[in-house]
Amino acid sequence: MTPQVSDLPKLAAPAQRALQSIGVTTLKQLTKITEAELLQLHGMGPNALGKLRQALAEKSLSFASEKAKK
């Protein structure tokens, strides 16, 4: 079995588990999720969210907007 290639930044174990619990393994997948939705996950905190936001910005990506989800 080939390991999944992930472009996610290094996060604390609880934040990694939170992303795994919803099947997120790439930055591209995060563009379909809002920051508010991520913060609701057990183990996801402001520090991890900031690292993810920065990693997305470096690839000219961003989280889903709250308006687009309504």
Binned strand content: under 5%
Number of helices: 5
Total DSSP E strands: 0
Structural class: mainly alpha
Give the CATH level 1 class: Mainly Alpha
CATH topology group: DNA polymerase, domain 1
User: Gap between N and C termini, in Å?
Assistant: 38 Å
Largest sheet: none
Could you state the oligomeric state of the chains shown?
single chain
Helix content: 40-55%
* CATH architecture call: Orthogonal Bundle
The H-and-E topology, N to C, reads as HHHHH
Radius of gyration: 12 Å
Question: How many structurally independent domains?
Answer: 1
Estimate the global geometry from the Cα principal axes.
globular
Description:
By secondary structure, the chain is mainly α. The chain is built from five helices and no strands.
Summarize the structure in short:
With 70 residues, this protein is an all-alpha fold. The protein is 50% helix and 0% strand.
Key attributes of the depicted protein:
70 residues, mainly alpha, DNA polymerase, domain 1
Task: Furnish the topology, listing elements before pairings.
Blueprint: H1 13-21, H2 27-30, H3 35-39, H4 46-58, H5 66-69
